[in-house]
From TrEMBL:
Keywords: Transferase. It is an enzyme of class 2 (transferase). The keyword Transferase applies. Its EC number is 2.5.1.54. The keyword RNA-binding does not apply. It comes from the Bacteria. Residues 18-258 form the DAHP synthetase I/KDSA domain. GO terms for molecular function: 3-deoxy-7-phosphoheptulonate synthase activity; aldehyde-lyase activity. This is Phospho-2-dehydro-3-deoxyheptonate aldolase. It comes from Grimontia celer. One of its GO terms (biological process) is aromatic amino acid family biosynthetic process.
């Protein structure tokens, strides 16, 4: 069970050799989509150089329009593995279907369940059976209770290695892509022993808001962030408007120093 009533101490989930949920604030970074070897390798080097501990990148992309870039698929997974070997960073990538679970497990260290699949119970059971770390994103219109029950599906299938992710929810507000619900972070830390990370990139959809909301995530008690970065956001094949440039990523890490280095 994911409730604090059954386990009082915080769970620490390891992505490769990187602990999430311990004393250090974990920064997971990388592009929304894997686009090419050059794109992935160059951004991986930059985020690693500034202190990211794990690499994100989508190979299977849940796009709102079927006419938009759908991801590189298996070739993208292979590039993530290559980037992981080159930098030493473990990887996080989204699995959209049960049929993709085996390849994700072969190439990737942590399986992301995207917001749109938070209540895809067949998929939750399938990743639960792998025992691999799972980063479970909150659905666009899911309550906190529904998120915790979705986590319970993974846990009940035999996998306690779950990281919860607040990535913004749909509200009446249209100024930003989503409304980042930082209440949820504080609330879940009370209710559950699982680590919680924040995704300020999808939470705001606006590059300029990512650094301030990352600081807020650290202040409210999140265990880390997962953030999108691209060295040439104007050319990005997805979510360029919310990607941090290399310079902005350096600035982010500078501002998070007290949390990232906390002993
Ligand atoms: C992503 O991480 O690129 C993504 C599609 O996230 P979400 O499922 O939160 O929209
Ligand atoms: Mn994205």
């Amino acid at each position: 069970m994911v409730s604090r009533e059954v386990q009082a101490h915080n769970s620490v989930v390891r992505i490769g050799n990187v602990p999430v949920g311990g004393d250090k604030f974990a920064v997971i970074a990388g592009p929304c989509s894997v686009e090419s070897e050059q794109q992935l390798m160059s951004v991986a080097d930059v985020v690693k150089g500034h202190g990211a501990v794990a690499l994100r990148g989508g190979a299977y992309k849940p796009r709102t329009s079927p006419y938009d870039f759908q991801g590189m698929g298996i070739e993208g997974l292979k590039l993530l593995k290559q980037a992981s070997e080159a930098t030493g960073m473990p990887t996080v990538s989204e699995v959209m279907e049960v049929s993709q679970v085996d390849s994700l497990c072969e190439y990737i260290d942590c399986l992301q369940i995207g917001a749109r699949n938070m209540q895809n119970y067949g998929l939750l059971k399938a990743v639960g059976e792998t025992g691999k770390p799972v980063l479970l994103k909150r659905g666009l219109s899911a309550t906190i209770e529904e998120l915790l029950l979705a986590a319970e599906y993974i846990y009940d299938a035999g996998n306690p290695n779950i990281i919860l992710c607040e990535r913004g929810i749909r509200t009446f507000e249209t100024a930003t892509r989503n409304t980042l619900d930082l209440n949820a972070v504080a609330y879940i830390k009370q209710r559950s022993h699982l680590p919680v990370v924040v995704d300020p990139s999808h939470g705001t959809g606006v590059r300029e808001l990512v650094i301030p909301l990352s600081r807020a995530a650290a202040a409210v008690g999140a265990d880390g962030i997962i953030v999108e970065s691209h060295l040439n956001p104007a050319e990005a094949l997805s979510d360029g408007h919310q990607a941090l440039t290399g310079e902005m990523f350096a600035q982010l890490m500078q501002e998070l120093k007290p949390f990232v280095e906390a002993a």
